[in-house]
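Students often ask why we bother encoding 3D structure as a string. The short answer is that it lets us treat folding as translation between two languages. Here is a chain of 325 residues written in the first language.
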Amino acid sequence: MAAVAAVVVVVAVSLHLHLPFGLSSGHPATTSSSTTTTGSSKPKQRQTINLSTVGSLSAPASRIAAVPFGTGGALFMGGFDASGSPTGSVQNFQVGNVTSAGTLPVAEGSAVAAALGANVYLIGGEGSTIYQSTGTSFTVAGSLPVATADAAVATVGGTAYVIGGYSGTSELNTIVAFTPGSPAQTVATLPVPLRYPAAAALGGQVYITGGSTAGTASATVYRFDPVTKVITTFATLPHARDRESATALDGRVYVIGGANTAGTRTRAIYAINPTNGAVSLAGILPLALSDAAAVTASGEILIAGGLNDAGAPIATIYAITVHGT
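And here it is in the second language, the structure alphabet:
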């Protein structure tokens, strides 16, 4: 995928504790980079992150549902527009270009999406319905136990796990499994309710990062085993955050952007080592960003939309590639 612009900046992990949460001082407008800690008994290994601008959504939006789609691209569904209203747009991003790919049955913000087998599913949002994409139209494929917005999702095998969220009246502490052809069902209970968490699957495990409980952001990273249904506390982020994005690439879970309890957004990208739980600063976004969509597609992370430091949605699509180990 051709990059419109790419700038690489090296940041020492040893400095990250001295940076403010927003990482807005003394750093260039576009970024990338890192040194990753791979264990207390091993030397640090250089891992360089390249971040580039690769395209633009048809309009600024935040909290978009997204899945990998096509050849190194992604499908972006719904989200909130500049006025804060939910949208029904479906956008297909391929090789730097965005094209219309239909319209959702209802305008939807804060839903999640999963690619299961050959099909794409839009899950929850303001309601509990699970839709299956059929060409450029959608059919009802099931329903969550309750309406679920502001959740996280991760896919293991042929099952999507919908984590936490908000029912419209209360924060949720559930992990709900959806496998096409079977009813969605609650399979585990989080230690606390979590709204606006992020999640990524790696090595058959689901890593759940941040989120908020009763309006207070969390720094905890949980690990959920879909086989045993056990949830354990796995790691701690350097700063509490919610509204972040998460995805996995090259053996690491990446936690991208987000906001603290006061609503201050961050530029930080953190990498989590699934072997030992070490968390390191992996790179810096060009701008403070929350509520963005992030998916891994063909060896890179695509980040689309989100809210900037002023709380306004953006249309930019970024790509992150990782070099080194």
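Translate back mentally: The radius of gyration is 18 Å. Keep this in mind for the problem set.
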